[in-house]
Amino acid sequence: MTETDEIRGKTEGTAPVPLSVLDLVTVGAGRTATDALHTSVKLSRLAESRGFHRYWVAEHHSMPGVASSSPAVILAHLAAHTTRIRLGSGGVMLPNHAPLVIAEQFGTLEAMAPGRIDLGLGRAPGTDGATAAALRRTDRLGEGADDFPEQLAELTRFLDDDFPDGHPYARIHAVPGPVQSTSPGGVQSPHRPPVWLLGSSGFSARLAGVLGLPFAFAHHFSAQNTVPALDLYRESFRPSAVLAAPYALIGVSALATDDEKEARRQVLAAALNMVRLRTGRPGLVPTPEEAEAYEFSPMEREFINSWNSNVIHGTADEVRSGLDDLQKRTGADELMITGNAHSGDVRLRSYELIADAYGLPKAPATEAR
Fold this sequence. Notes:
Layout: H1 3-7, E1 19-23, H2 33-49, E2 54-57, H3 71-79, E3 86-93, H4 99-112, E4 117-122, H5 129-136, H6 141-146, H7 148-160, H8 179-182, E5 195-199, H9 202-211, E6 215-217, H10 226-236, E7 248-256, H11 260-278, H12 288-293, H13 298-308, E8 312-314, H14 316-330, E9 334-338, H15 344-357
Parallel strand pairs: 1-2, 1-9, 2-3, 3-4, 4-5, 5-6, 6-7, 7-8, 7-9
């Protein structure tokens, strides 16, 4: 299998493009991180059984309602409960980590689940400035973002084990990795996790295009920038050994329920969680009942209306129509759906409804191993 095969998904059912899942591992009020991670296992198995192409988790820090601070650890857990679906990071925030550490972690994941691992990379901290400073052991945060292309090049060389002679890291090897195939008696997997660049603006879009890498855009929280960023990616694209033509997915916030009123209740609760996060009061995802009783200020109400205008929600048919329209408008090659709600059961039901709406296959769920 070539990297291009691993990147380009297969369209199932009547979906316009491959459908995938972005899991933020959200924790609702009255629930624990253990509950959220149990939901992630169930959701990954559901996604696999219904023909979703890939399943990504994202790196966030210091957010009580998001239990995904360690993507590599979560992905290892999910790999033990699935057999076919691609698993990856959406993404690992490269400036928060030494490139060698990421290469080792994802080399280990590749050894656990050969040919199924994606390495999505972002340049934002995935948190507030103070937490980013604690992660990076420095308050000079701009340097990490500005050095992103150099960090990416270093990480890629560790993944490929191809530092040139004379380079300070030429004798350093990420293990598991290609060096094992060159050791006496060594046999190494032919797979290497494909690198994706993630972004919510034009910087990573241009860089992904210039390097000929696949690109993932965060439409779910930067909708106004989606079309310009995808246009920039396509205009900047140069064919590479990885891709002959551009390939872009977009993260989409979507929630399907059995009736439209319930969908509105659920997305209101998720939006209240965003209000609190954006105003420096991060917490657990509130219940719909708490959101309905909350007295929104005019400014908060304006934010809610703006935020929810980019959340595709309603019945399965309404969500399918919204996803179809979005794909046509953006030309995205893949839709990665994130469904945020207080309850894990609501999230699971949403993906089931979306799968049914597109006639995705119904295979037996993977048995836990």
